[in-house]
Write a structure and sequence with these properties.
about 325 residues; mainly alpha; transmembrane helix; membrane; transmembrane; 11 helices
C-alpha cells in the first residue's frame, strides 16, 4: 500500500517528523531502511579513517614522537592538543559513524560528514604547514589520509537519503540558520586583527611570522571554504533547500570538532608554559566549544528520536 504524503500525492516521498511536533508527514517503525543494503564501502572506509587518524596521533608528539614536525614551540604544543582531540574524539566518532552506516541507520552517512570534513581540513595543514625541505614518508601518509577523508566525505554526502531524514519545521529552519550565522560571525571575529592589517599593510605578529605557511593555510580554509559553506547553508535553510538540510549536519558537526580541538590547543599551551598562551583566549574558546557542542546536539537530536516518540509528540500537538 502506498503512503500518502502531506501534499496528498501518493507518489511524493514521505519523510518523518523532526520530533518537534510540527509538519508531521510520516512516522517510521524504525530508523533503518527496509530492503536497503548497507553501504559497506563507506562503513569500512570510516574504520580506516579512524585507524589512520589514531595512528597519526600515536606517532606524533602526543605519544611516541616518531613523527617530528619542524615547528616552533607554540605549534608543537598546538599539535599535541590537536592530536589529543583527534585520538579521543574524532577517531571514536568515525567508528560510531561506521557502526551506524553498517547497520543502515539513517544517521550513519550524516554522522560520517563531520569527521571526514575535520580530517580533510586538518591534513591540508599537516601537508603544507611544516614546509618540508626534504621528501618524507610522513607527507605521503598525510596525503593519503587527506585523500581518504575526501573520498569518505563525498561518499557520505551521496549516501544521505534525504527522504529518511526528519523534516524540519519552519521555526527549526530559522533557528538553525541563525545558529549558523552566529558560528560564521565567531570565525570572522578571529580574523579582525588580520582585517586591520590588510587595511594598513602592517606586519604579521611574531607568532604568525614563525610559521606563516601554517597561518595562511588555515586562513584560506576558514575564509575561503568554511565561512562560504556555512553562509550558503544558512541561506539554503531559509529557502527550504533539501541540500541545506543535509549540509547542516556536516557543518554543525565540524563546528563541534574544530573549536574543541582549538580549545585543547590553548589548554596545552597553558599547561606547557607557552609564551604565546592566553588564559582569556582559552576561556573564550572553551565556552565557544561548549556552545557549539550544544548546538550540534540540538541539530542531531531528531535523528535519534524513536518512532513512538515522534508519534506521541505529534498526537500531543494535534490533539
Amino acid at each position: 500500500m502506498s503512503r500518502v504524503s502531506s501534499s496528498g500525492d501518493p507518489r511524493a516521498p514521505s519523510r518523518p517528523n523532526d520530533g518537534t511536533g510540527e509538519s508531521s508527514v510520516r512516522v517510521d517503525a524504525d530508523e533503518t531502511t527496509v530492503g536497503h543494503r548497507p553501504d559497506r564501502w563507506l562503513g569500512w572506509a570510516l574504520v580506516a579513517l579512524a585507524l589512520g587518524v589514531a595512528t597519526n596521533s600515536l606517532l606524533g608528539p602526543l605519544v611516541t614522537g616518531a613523527i617530528a614536525y619542524p615547528f616552533p614551540e607554540t605549534l608543537v604544543n598546538q599539535t599535541v592538543g590537536l592530536e589529543a582531540v583527534s585520538l579521543a574524539v574524532v577517531a571514536p566518532w568515525s567508528l560510531v559513524a561506521a557502526w551506524f552506516v553498517l547497520r543502515d541507520h539513517r544517521a550513519g552517512p550524516v554522522l560520517a560528514l563531520p569527521p571526514a570534513a575535520y580530517t580533510a581540513y586538518m591534513f591540508v595543514q599537516y601537508v603544507v604547514g611544516p614546509e618540508y625541505l626534504t621528501y618524507s614518508w610522513v607527507v605521503a601518509f598525510h596525503l593519503g589520509l587527506f585523500v581518504l577523508s575526501g573520498a569518505v566525505l563525498v561518499r557520505a554526502w551521496s549516501s544521505v537519503r534525504s527522504a529518511s531524514l526528519p523534516t524540519p519545521s519552519e521555526t527549526r529552519r530559522r533557528r538553525a540558520s541563525v545558529g549558523l550565522v552566529l558560528l560564521t560571525a565567531f570565525v570572522g571575529l578571529q580574523y579582525l586583527p588580520a582585517a586591520g592589517g590588510v587595511l594598513t599593510g602592517g606586519p604579521v605578529s611574531d607568532e604568525v611570522a614563525a610559521a606563516p605557511t601554517m597561518y595562511w593555510s588555515i586562513a584560506l580554509l576558514d575564509l575561503g571554504v568554511v565561512v562560504p559553506v556555512t553562509v550558503a547553508t544558512a541561506i539554503g535553510l531559509l529557502r527550504g533547500a533539501s541540500w541545506a538540510e543535509r549540509a547542516l549536519y556536516g557543518v554543525a558537526g565540524w563546528y563541534l570538532l574544530v573549536p574543541v580541538s582549538v580549545a585543547a590547543m590553548g589548554l596545552t599551551m597553558l599547561a606547557n608554559g607557552d609564551p604565546n598562551a592566553s588564559v582569556g583566549q582559552v576561556v573564550v574558546l572553551s565556552v565557544a566549544a561548549l556552545l557549539f557542542t550544544a548546538f550540534a546536539a540540538w541539530v542531531y537530536r531528531p535523528l535519534f528520536a524513536r518512532a513512538r516518540d515522534r508519534q506521541g509528540t505529534t498526537e500531543r500537538t494535534t490533539g
